[in-house]
Amino acid sequence: MFKKIVIANRGDVAIRVQRACHEMGIKTVAVHSTADSSAMNVRLADESVCIGPPKSKDSYLNIPAILSAASISGADAIHPGVGFLSENPAFAQIVSDHGLTFIGPKPEHIKVMGDKIEAKKMALELGIPCVPGSDGAIRTTDEALLVAKDIGFPIIVKAAAGGGGKGMQIAFSETELSNAIKLAQSEAEASFGSGEVYIERYLSNPRHIEIQIIGDKFGNVVHLGERDCSLQRRHQKILEETPSPALTKKVRNDIGALAATAMKKFGYESLGTIEFLYENGEFYFIEMNTRLQVEHPITEMVTGIDLVQKQIQISAGEPLGISQDEVSLKGHSIECRINAEDPENFIPSPGKIVDYHPPGGFGIRIDSGIYAGYEIPPHYDSLIAKLIVHGQNREQCLSRLQRALDEFVIGNIKTTIALHQKLLSTKNFIDGEYDIHWLEKHLLKQ
Ligand code: ADP
Prior knowledge:
By secondary structure, the protein is an alpha+beta fold. It has three domains: 4-84, Rossmann fold (3-Layer(aba) Sandwich), CATH 3.40.50; 133-201, Dna Ligase, domain 1 (2-Layer Sandwich); 207-444, D-amino Acid Aminotransferase, Chain A, domain 1. It is 34% helix and 26% strand. The chain has helices at 11-23, 40-44, 63-73, 89-97, 107-114, 116-125, 141-151, 174-192, 249-266, 296-303, 307-315, 394-407, 417-424, 427-430, 438-442; strands at 4-7, 27-33, 47-52, 77-79, 101-102, 155-159, 169-171, 197-201, 207-215, 221-233, 236-242, 270-279, 282-289, 332-339, 351-352, 355-357, 364-368, 375-376, 383-391, 409-411. Helix 2 (40-44) links the parallel strand 2 and strand 3. The structure holds adenosine-5'-diphosphate. Adenosine-5'-diphosphate binds at residues 131, 156, 162-166, 200-203, 208, 232, 235, 275, 277, 286-287, 436.
């Protein structure tokens, strides 16, 4: 097993990985920007190294600085966390070229799944059903029109290098197509440095259902059920739950087995999430994330499996040690993403946290690095805490979540706690009746 791990990330996920390491007797090195010197993960790490100024490109994306930190601290592995370098195949390769272990899958798997056009081709080869769309990149409106004849309108234009809900445009008719392509291309170019786009049918009322899988270096792969991440704003997840109110046990087992079989054929090792849209009883692959997910805790709550520890053990060459029959899903879990944002207009609200009182009690978990007196820097993602609740069933989970949100005090900054409280009081959500458009249509001001 590793003796010392560099955690190349910040915020709640850095703390999450650090906790897993410390429980396993592994020393941690926190690498951080100058803006994060007083962050909780830096305080709790065994060692810390400042790797640059606040801007991510100069610190959390600064590969030479991260490798230097690993070298001077004598670490033997690097955990990339979520975001930043976690899905960068060149980084994974450079880490292993330097004699260190990248805690994640093989670089070639990250590469294929990182290009959404290649990912869809691979998914089809592996027997995973996809949203009908173009076979490859679309350059002109004429090319798009030919595909549209087959699949019909509405159509969504998406960035091949996409992520974070960026670079997507919808065309409801032929007249809107040319503009949608141009807009998606320029947004993709600006956000990802590549203007390559593709098109697929725009599903009108699907749910976003994703399957968590985990594989080891010996060809063992299991699935750990699904997460329903349909509650979204601008294609970004706000609240996730498992099990999905929309799936039966049989549907779950079938899609889980399909995902696990495909990943076994792929030779995939480490954690992975296969994302689907689910509409009228059919699953359609949209992408695969080759890393830990923000919403992984809800899977941990119902399976009792520490996903980060498993991920580290697998990278260290240990066998998975769980068969599919041994995976049992118990109760219900929900995660609320608490962002430092105005709950009405979503404008970021960085600043100093004066009062902090997290909820506690049976079935409550908080993954966060904030504390009273902590100054939220303005340079990064506005996610500051994840409130994760577990109950014996959905009903208990909902009342526990309501109680936890009512107890939660984060002052004086604005947070999205109020949005979650509002959501919890709506009949559709209580009844589990929602799709990917529901939140924007029914709860948010346009
Ligand atoms: P990203 O990598 O930017 O998160 P995804 O491909 O994972 O992009 O899609 C994010 C979200 O965008 C989905 O959960 C869904 O809400 C919406 N979306 C993506 N593709 C489609 C589609 N074909 N039809 C309808 N909505 C879609």
